[in-house]
Amino acid sequence: MTFVGHSNPHLNQGEHTAEINGFTLHYTVRGAGPVLLFPSPGWGPAVGSYIPMPGLEERCTVVYFDTRHSGKSSGPEDPGQYTLEHFVADIDALRIHLAQDRVFLAGHSGGGHQVLAYGIAHGDRLLGIIAIDAIIAADDVRMGEMMRRINERRTQPFYLEHPAYIDNAMALMSGTGAGTQPTIEQVLDATGAFYFHDPKLAADAFAAMEFDDQVLAYTQASGFQSRNLLPELPRITAPTLLIYGDDDFQCDPVSQGERAHAVLPTSQLEILAGAGHMPWIEQPALFAAACDAWLERVQA
């Protein structure tokens, strides 16, 4: 396939808004090729933190968008309107707004949860899916693997230099710490090192991100990200690339990536060495190569 651009003004390079499902959705268009929709994770971060994504804009017209109540998008002040089904409906409404019969989807973490759920519901509207360190099943298997990975960090140099870090972080994560409900920034200040293979990258990476604590409260109340997708993944018919950092404690490649790949016949699993929850930051060349090779094969 050869794509040189789009005549649709909604797909002109730059920032746009769309009125969908009762709110104003903000999105940014970059790159050239078939349209790829890229939602923010849904629970608070703005999508601007993901621009640019290595390996995507070279082959696709990437539409990065802020999900409801995140970033520059508005959203209802009703926690009942932040279920996974609402986010899936928003993806489809944006696809219709952009006048696209079929699209690629990509998403990270909670965004990966969204795009896989979309694939389960609307496989005939997809060219393919790239799920990056996606939440598949927030179950006991995942919790056991998370705790194992956290405890393994105790002998690593950064944590030996900061001996109280892990215990303080786990107290906050379990809700046993004193004080009121922490903000997203407070949680990431206390636990951010866990998200990276190189924990020293955490401070700068999270400082560049924007968060919305209100939408976090709404999504927690609605149970967003709580659905176990494993039994439904075989319904996905679109080609699917699963990318995980080998040192991701949050959405690890064992309880999430390998289990997803085992039940999803259309999937390819790439585990990137030396990367945590954000592999495009820690291993941009490996990440770009994985996306580029997969997109080249699927588009061919």
TrEMBL record:
GO MF, one annotated term: hydrolase activity
List the source organism: Streptomyces dubilierae
Lineage here is: Bacteria, Bacillati, Actinomycetota, Actinomycetes, Kitasatosporales
Q: Which SUPFAM superfamilies match?
A: alpha/beta-Hydrolases (SSF53474)
Which Pfam family, giving just one, matches this sequence?
Abhydrolase_1
Which protein are we looking at?
Alpha/beta hydrolase
**Record keywords:** Hydrolase
Q: Where is the AB hydrolase-1 domain?
A: 53-283
The answer on whether this UniProt entry bears the keyword Ubl conjugation reads no
The record's section on InterPro entries has:
AB_hydrolase_1, AB_hydrolase_fold, AB_hydrolase_sf
